[in-house]
Here is the input.
Amino acid sequence: MSFGPFLLLALLEGTVMAAVLALTAVGLSLVFGVMRVVNVAHGEFYMLGAVLAWFVTYYLPFPPAIAWLAALIIAPLIVAVIAALTDTLILKRLNYDPEATIVATIGLLYMLQQAALTFYGPDARPVVAPFEWRIQLPWFGYSGYKLFVVLTAVVILAAVWLFMTRSKAGLVMRATQVDRETAQAFGINVDRVYAGTFALGGALAAAAAVLIVPIQQAHYLMGHDPLLLSFIVVIIGGLGSIRGTLVAALVIGLSDGIISMFFSPTLAKIIATLLVALVLVFRPQGLFGAKA
Amino acid sequence: MTDGAKIWTLHLLVLAAVFVAQFLLPPYHATNLARIMVLAVFAMGYNIAFGYTGLLSLGHALFFAAGMYGMGLPVWHLGWLSLPALIAGLVAGGALAGVVGLLALRTAGVSFMIVTLMFAQAGYLTLLYLNTWTGGDEGFVVLSEARVLFGFDLATDTARFITAFTLFAAGLLACLLLVRSPFGRVMVAMRENEERSRMLGYDPFRIKLLALAVSGLYAGLAGAAYGMLFGYVGASFATIQYSILPMLYVLLGGAGTVLGPFLGALLMFYLIDITSNYTDAYLFVVGAALVGLVLFAPKGILGTLRERVWRWLP
Here is the structure.
């Protein structure tokens, strides 16, 4: 294959990656923005989404398309409940102290990983794609499902955007983000906002995983890479800024796709992690977000 | 007794008890204890940064691995022998901690945690990337010719225990001297109130950098000793898990106590060892211990003991 089509393929793969990454990272960014909590277990919420999707599609006696749709609804819901419970049972009792919550979510990471290993097993298992359809380009065929993933991710992100900017609940969340005390003084139930935000963050990660799981298999250790990449995206985009997160997801997803296509994926990750460390040191507000 | 006499008596008694334990314990547990002592050296280093200076790092695996590879690579590629290789590991850990500190210490709190995490991750990936030199994922075995120290074969149980004990005792006493010295007090002042110590004329950046470098020396020495005593060097020691373990030991034993890291390492090691007889869900034990500690006992065992009974505990 010559250079042009090869680049096109890299761009396509990068776009798919960017879309899924954006969903995962927006979840992390929301939680950090509203609650000031760095959720290290975010990758495990993603993994749980994929594993639950496998359970749903495996046990529900529906054709693949409907079973997958069911998974897209059920898996994020279950993860949202787990996240809300985590918030009330653990994070709230720590008074959202930044360092204590990081240690606690590391603990949660190990517990969720072990739970998946015990109940799901060490194997990677595939989920059947809701439909098989290849788009035949002049140079190569491309999976139609991957494009559908991009489309769905964009729809979900748009919904989150509308929810945050147009709905009452979104307004309440933004108010809590700006000033927790004042929000409370105006009768906002901050506890409920926090639980809801944590649940929404987890559900977004789970939804991203349900989208990706027909392409990648579900595995109990799969949460590691999305966690790291989401961190990278959220930090480069500016901690807590949703718009910055989206831009950064696009940049990181595309450049990761291109760099790993032409060079080594490991090298791409080394560059990205070092870049993040340097951004945090020299430009803590992020590369894109002017305000934190 | 004065507080100073009590402190020295307690720590020397603990060292004596650990030394005698090798004659009383069956070989399996003696080997475990050697492993625990090396891990405790690592945790003591972590404690100097986190417990005393308040630097919560998520990247200490990098310094542990720097020590391990700083020892292992010269043995493998240059044919170095045990003592210079161990020293190379020690220096590598301290030097890398210094370099990382120069950058990472410009941040604080959550950013510091993430920056150290990212550097450690980059270090781990670099080990994988340079697999022709480092052995990548599979790692490599340390040549048995290099595992001889002052004529003693470190693969034998007694020599291994004595070496681990020597390093542990040296680390413990050095830590005790450090935290009771004026510099140790300034470290604690950084943890408690950085602004006020700045007003008193101390340079927080320099103090923290020095503390982090000392912490890196401990981690490097522990990594080098671990590779040397147990004969294997691998990239798995550079993963995030090896940054979490010393934090867990320190939190369990008591952050900011000299004996805490050893107590935490001992208890955690056997907690995992015993539970693995009943269930293979050892990750769950680690996770539950972390959550339980931050929720119910953030000061750890010795920290709580110091608060309630032994006010003089360093």
Summary: Strands of chain A lie at 134-136, 141-143. The mean pLDDT of chain A is 87. The first helix of chain A runs from residue 3 to 35.
